[in-house]
Amino acid sequence: xxxxxxxxxxxxxxxxxxxxxxxxxxxxxxxxxxxxxxxxxxxxxxxxxxxxxxxxxxxxxxxxxxxxxxxxxxxxxxxxxxxxxxxxxxxxxxxxxxxxxxxxxxxxxxxxxxxxxxxxxxxxxxxxxxxxxxxxxxxxxxxxxxxxxxxxxxxxxxxxxxxxxxxxxxxxxxxxxxxxxxxxxxxxxxxxxxxxxxxxxxxxxxxxxxxxxxxxxxxxxxxxxxxxxxxxxxxxxxxxxxxxxxxxxxxxxxxxxxxxxxxx
Length: 264
Ligand SMILES: NC(=O)C1=CN([C@@H]2O[C@H](COP(=O)(O)OP(=O)(O)OC[C@H]3O[C@@H](n4cnc5c(N)ncnc54)[C@H](O)[C@@H]3O)[C@@H](O)[C@H]2O)C=CC1
Ligand SMILES: O=C(O)[C@@H]1CCC=N1
Description:
This protein has eleven helices and eight strands. The chain is of the alpha/beta class. It has two domains: 3-159, Rossmann fold (3-Layer(aba) Sandwich), CATH 3.40.50; 167-263, ProC C-terminal domain-like fold. The radius of gyration is 21 Å and the shape is elongated. The structure holds 1,4-dihydronicotinamide adenine dinucleotide and (2S)-3,4-dihydro-2H-pyrrole-2-carboxylic acid. (2S)-3,4-dihydro-2H-pyrrole-2-carboxylic acid (A1CAB) binds next to helix 7.
């Protein structure tokens, strides 16, 4: 398969790193271009992927084209490549948050096969969480191949587009919030005398282990919280202090703001 990327920022680089690490594609099966040469020339050199000089050159050299630019330029970039996509019967994979299949089809102006996806940064190490929705023109082997790219670098879930904003907050943006939680936990360790490196490793290991526990246990998180909280012990004292500072409200407000911005 030849896979092209238009836009080679943080998310495209994460997907490419994940695919290469899993040997899902060889470097010479990936072709990239973005508006900022600094984003892709050095990256192409470091990873061995092929650097193209224009967006059109990416389309010409790919079976599947990943639209990986920021939402504010996505429609213009799609207009710029739609004739090349059409002439060569390519498949479009979009990772652009907030851009619907209907809007992309309208901009394309023909029956362009499209897979709308919403990945997260953790695809870089093969543990991503990606939502997918295909339009009616993407079926059979092409659909399986496009989905297979994201299966190779984590979990995928087919989702109605109406739920994409919520998913974007809960899975696309939330790594930032979870990294923030890990940093806050580590910083508290530093406050009490641990080195930042040690504290970060401890906080990240416990976060990963606790996530595994939730996934593997039959219990809901609240029941697990009770198992950690010894009667009259230190955990319940900490939990109550966190709630007094508004922990759960802060998380829900953060997700509300994320969804609101995605839908703006
Ligand atoms: N960063 C993340 O965790 C996630 C990002 N996304 C989506 O991925 C897309 C990219 O986001 P990031 O990588 O974070 O942004 P970024 O700013 O790091 O990368 C954007 C890329 O688009 C390129 N670009 C801009 N205008 C262009 C044009 N006219 N032609 C070709 N390339 C052009 C830039 O040079 C840059 O390489 C966005 O649409 C975002 O909604 C989706 C899920 C998660
Ligand atoms: O911050 C953003 O807009 C994108 C969408 C999901 C994660 N990053």
